[in-house]
């Protein structure tokens, strides 16, 4: 049996194991080791089990992952999130639908610290949903806005998804972060416009909150200072070369720790934050070990080159190839976690992108945005399930119905980024 056939069987087995609910990291590890053994030898495959974990865990670039996670955990547990929503509520709460816009804005700002969509969604739901329910907001609109706002964490830098894509494809982490800035902010603006349109069409879904004077609005900006301070130090430091992305993650985590200590976080809370960081980091690193093992198998099977040859034979343009891959991501996003989808598929599709001469940074932004869509779409929709866990009294159907306008908004945003690549590459020129 040829190596390409073994590669195709391995990818098929990968899907079967995931359907059977085998953990994604373990699935990649099993398929990678067994497939590599069938093509090369069992001795070489066993040797991989010894070397790959060491390679991944000792990779300096990956050390940014636990730092970004720690930063988000500390921000969530130190009261920064509550202060953030209070500030955005005062600024926007007097408008019809203003609390939903404030929730989306809070998610966008919080994601600039947390780097994780799930962490953003869970934290801001805990803070913002009770307030929206108190003002009689339609539960579908309220939870839909939070589910959509949570997805901004996967795009607005620093983003763990962009970091992992950059490392897997050997792109500059700084370039990926800067490329995600405009698309992330565009998502924040378009979500706010989506809420405005929904309010125009269905004004009964929300009421205007209590108006606040301009003096109070200006004073409330102090709640945004910690976030913008940490964010600007990291992004500007990385952009101007003052420190590497990994050093930037450490600086951000240290600054957030100082804020947490000033606000009174002590012993038990700090220890709980460290435990949560270790648990989340272990999950991510296990998936990265599995992805690296699977990548070796895909490389020796040469299945990516076979797919590239088929596409060349079909005489497809690079744009059509990109659209086909994004369509695949959109379907996979209905069933898989975002990080798992990236680490599984990037080793397969990236050689195709390289062969087609497609800008890898632009493609990375499109990929992450399409993965972001999967966080809101049924049947899985990880953000939706996180919010359901935080608000068990709200039905899944209500949340999916509430998130539908934001899915349309993201499809429009994706179309804009495809039509105008400069939106992703402006800061890289």
Protein architecture, described:
- It contains 21 helices and no strands.
- Helix 1 (3-19) runs antiparallel to helix 2 (24-39), helix 7 packs across helix 19 and helix 8 crosses helix 20 (396-419).
- With 429 residues, it is mainly alpha-helical.
Characteristic terms for this protein:
429 residues, mainly alpha, 78% helix, globular
Strand content: under 5%
Number of helices: 21
* Backbone CA Rg: 22 Å
Kindly report the average pLDDT value: 83
Q: In terms of per-residue confidence, which ranges show pLDDT below 50 for 5 or more consecutive residues?
A: none
Q: Give the ordered list of helices and strands.
A: HHHHHHHHHHHHHHHHHHHHH
Structural class: mainly alpha
Biggest beta-sheet profile:
none
Fraction of helical residues: over 70%
Shape: globular
What's the N-to-C terminus distance? 47 Å
The total of beta strands comes to: 0
Report a brief summary of the structure.
This protein has 429 residues and is an all-alpha fold.
Task: Summarize the topology.
Blueprint: H1 3-19, H2 24-39, H3 42-57, H4 64-77, H5 80-92, H6 98-114, H7 117-134, H8 139-151, H9 160-169, H10 173-201, H11 214-220, H12 225-239, H13 245-262, H14 267-301, H15 303-313, H16 318-332, H17 338-355, H18 360-374, H19 382-390, H20 396-419, H21 422-425
Helix pairs in contact: 1-2, 1-14, 2-3, 2-14, 3-14, 4-6, 4-13, 4-14, 5-6, 5-11, 6-7, 6-8, 6-10, 6-12, 7-8, 7-19, 8-19, 8-20, 9-10, 9-17, 9-18, 10-18, 10-20, 12-13, 14-17, 15-17, 16-18, 17-18, 18-20
């Amino acid at each position: 049996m040829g190596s390409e056939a073994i590669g195709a069987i391995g990818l098929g087995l990968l899907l079967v194991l995931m359907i059977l609910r085998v953990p994604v990291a373990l699935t990649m590890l099993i398929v990678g080791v067994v497939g590599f053994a069938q093509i090369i030898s069992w001795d070489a495959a066993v040797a991989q089990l010894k070397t790959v974990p060491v390679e991944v865990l000792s990779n300096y670039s990956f050390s940014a992952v636990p730092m970004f996670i720690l930063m988000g955990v500390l921000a969530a547990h130190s009261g920064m999130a509550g202060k953030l929503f209070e500030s955005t509520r005062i600024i926007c709460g007097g408008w019809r639908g203003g609390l939903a816009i404030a929730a989306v804005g809070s998610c966008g700002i919080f994601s600039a610290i947390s780097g994780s969509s799930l962490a953003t969604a869970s934290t801001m739901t805990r803070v913002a949903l009770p307030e929206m329910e108190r003002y009689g907001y339609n539960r579908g609109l309220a939870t839909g806005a939070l589910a959509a706002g949570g997805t901004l964490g996967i795009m607005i830098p620093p983003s763990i998804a962009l970091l992992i894509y950059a490392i897997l494809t050997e792109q500059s982490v700084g370039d990926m972060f800067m490329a995600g800035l405009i698309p992330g902010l565009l998502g924040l603006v378009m979500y706010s416009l989506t809420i405005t349109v929904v309010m125009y069409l269905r004004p009964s879904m929300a009421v205007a909150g209590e108006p606040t004077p301009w003096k109070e609005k200006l004073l409330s900006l102090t709640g945004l200072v910690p976030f913008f301070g940490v964010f600007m130090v990291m992004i500007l430091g990385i952009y101007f070369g003052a420190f590497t992305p990994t050093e930037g993650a450490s600086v951000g985590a240290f600054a957030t720790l100082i804020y947490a200590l000033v606000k009174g976080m002590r012993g038990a809370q700090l220890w709980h934050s460290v435990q949560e960081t270790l648990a989340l980091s272990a999950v991510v690193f296990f998936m990265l070990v599995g992805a690296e093992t699977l990548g070796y198998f895909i490389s020796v099977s040469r299945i990516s080159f076979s797919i590239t040859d088929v596409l060349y034979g079909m005489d497809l343009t690079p744009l059509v190839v990109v659209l086909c891959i994004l369509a695949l991501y959109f379907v996979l996003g209905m069933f898989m976690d975002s990080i798992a989808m990236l680490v599984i598929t990037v080793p397969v599709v990236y050689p195709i992108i390289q062969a087609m001469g497609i800008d890898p940074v632009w493609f990375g932004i499109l990929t992450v945005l399409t993965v972001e869509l999967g966080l809101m779409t049924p049947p899985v929709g990880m953000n939706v399930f996180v919010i359901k866990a935080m608000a068990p009294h709200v039905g899944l159907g209500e949340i999916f119905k509430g998130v539908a306008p934001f899915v349309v908004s993201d499809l429009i945003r994706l179309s804009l980024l495809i039509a105008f690549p400069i939106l992703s590459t402006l800061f890289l020129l």
